[in-house]
């Protein structure tokens, strides 16, 4: 206790942890979103997301599926709705105990539980039906929005329509301009 108090005094009242989660900033055409990754609880998904970030993969992609009261999905298509080539798919980590609550970020996937690659979605509501359960492999939560939920809500409420075979596509493209690591956990 004394060591911790001394450390707090030395660091100006802030106690730093060697196990802090990675913080990222996502710049979008609607504003900035700060994201905290769950390095310890979703290491496969976090490593996957960080790999795409380090390759600058997300720059120029759009939020291509937007459903008010549910979620906003991005990270796979450009403005012409052309899907970008991705890395190998990853193992589903939905059994990590994290819930698809408002403000959390999860890996998007197909009906195959282990098919997630670059796409993700931000929950704009508590979506318990997406959580892992005995009869549901679930969608793996790997991060949460720590700042900019107003931007997420603005995106969620944008007018949408059809674009070819796609539904719920914003009528005006909402672009991810960049995603960068602000503070790394060094894991």
TrEMBL record:
It catalyses: [protein]-peptidylproline (omega=180) = [protein]-peptidylproline (omega=0). Its EC number is 5.2.1.8. Keywords: Isomerase, Rotamase, Signal. GO terms for biological process: protein folding. The keyword Chaperone does not apply. Residues 1-20 form the signal peptide. PPIases accelerate the folding of proteins. It catalyzes the cis-trans isomerization of proline imidic peptide bonds in oligopeptides. Belongs to the cyclophilin-type PPIase family. This is Peptidyl-prolyl cis-trans isomerase. It comes from Acinetobacter calcoaceticus. The lineage of its organism: Bacteria, Pseudomonadati, Pseudomonadota, Gammaproteobacteria, Moraxellales.
């Amino acid at each position: 206790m004394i060591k911790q108090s001394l450390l707090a005094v030395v660091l100006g009242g802030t106690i730093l942890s060697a196990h802090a989660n990675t913080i990222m900033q996502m710049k979008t055409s609607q504003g900035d979103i700060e994201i905290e990754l769950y390095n310890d609880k979703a290491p496969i998904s976090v490593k996957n997301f960080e790999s795409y970030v380090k390759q600058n993969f997300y720059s120029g992609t759009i939020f291509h599926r937007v459903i008010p009261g549910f979620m906003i999905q991005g990270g796979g298509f450009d403005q012409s709705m052309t899907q970008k080539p991705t890395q190998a798919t990853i193992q589903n980590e939905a059994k990590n105990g994290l819930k698809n609550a408002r403000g959390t970020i999860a890996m998007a996937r197909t009906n195959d539980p282990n098919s997630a690659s670059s796409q993700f979605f931000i929950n704009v509501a508590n979506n318990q039906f997406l959580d892992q359960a005995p009869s549901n492999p679930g969608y793996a939560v790997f991060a949460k929005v720590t700042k900019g939920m107003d931007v997420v809500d603005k995106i969620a409420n944008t007018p949408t329509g059809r674009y070819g075979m796609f539904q719920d596509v914003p009528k005006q493209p909402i672009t991810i301009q960049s995603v960068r690591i602000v503070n790394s956990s060094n894991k």
